[in-house]
Amino acid sequence: MDTILQFDHTVIFYIQQHFISSYLTPIMYWLSKITSAGALWILISIILMIQKKYRVIGLGMFISLVLVFIIGDQGLKPHVARLRPFVDFPEVPLVAPPPAATTYSFPSGHSFGSFAAATALYLGLSNICPTKRFWGVIALIGACVVAFARVYLFVHYPTDVLTGLVLGIIVGCIAWKIAKALWSWWTGRKNEVEYEPYTFKRKN
Q1: 109 and 160 in contact (C-beta within 8 Å)?
Q2: Distance CA 160, CA 153 (A)
Q3: Domain residue spans in the chain?
Q4: Cβ–Cβ < 8 Å for 167, 71
Q5: Which of 8, 94, 129, 196 is deepest in the core (most CB within 10 A)?
């Protein structure tokens, strides 16, 4: 535990001392705002679900975010109850408005949700439309930037976001498998229409 704390403190204070910039701060804060509560990822999943070709991908992303909410927000966060960095170190000046001090730090919900949704998107595009897999890579890179932003803004420790990264990838993979199974069941069910021979009337 001491090693983990030492790692967290070393990395987060190194970032505070060497990366804080008046040009970078608005970008980091904006990225955190648009991905808060999975807002950006939910929007993308809805846009994809509207389109029949990409509907199963959007479903996978949405399922991943539901799992993140259950596992992260309702499960791990209140049980681990780790205080945020700005609560542990109130003397450190914040570069942007923080979340409520009563919310917990582990794991990072932004990182968890971003990697879960981005992983589901990447796997979906790789299966459904490999030529557009590039957008899944962009989403994963975006998730990395979001994770960095949370440490940059002094609202999460590095291990919070690293745990979110690992859990997010796992949950994204699981969500994609669930989405594929549900989609196969639903489309198969729709196609299973039985008719009486030669009459083309539905069987009762």
Answers
A1: no
A2: 13
A3: 23-188
A4: yes
A5: 8
Crossing angle, helix 55-68 and helix 158-191, to 10 degrees? 140
Element (DSSP H or E) covering residue 124: helix 109-128
Grade residue 150 by pLDDT with cuts at 50, 70 and 90. very high
Query: CB under 8 Å to 114, separation ≥6 — which residues?
Result: 35, 41, 142, 143, 146, 147, 164, 168
Specify the range with the lowest mean pLDDT, choosing from 94-98, 148-152, 180-184, 186-190: 186-190
Residue 172 near residue 119, CB atoms below 8 Å? yes
Strand ranges, E, within the chain:
none
93 neighbors 130 (Cβ within 8 angstroms): no
Upper half-sphere CA count for residue 162 (Cβ side, 13 Å): 8
Residue 192 confidence (pLDDT) above 90: no
* 3-class secondary-structure state, position 195: strand
Angle between helices 158-191 and 2-18 (to 10 degrees): 100
CA–CA distance, 140 with 122 (Å, rounded to integer): 8
Question: How far apart are alpha carbons 29 and 9 in whole angstroms?
Answer: 21
Task: Tell me how far apart the alpha carbons of residues 118 and 192 are, in angstroms, rounded to a whole number.
Answer: 33
Burial class (CB in 10 A: 0-12, 13-18, 19+), 45: buried
Please answer whether residues 144 and 33 qualify as being in contact, where contact means their C-beta atoms are separated by less than 8 angstroms.
no
Helix (H) or strand (E) segment spanning residue 78: helix 77-80
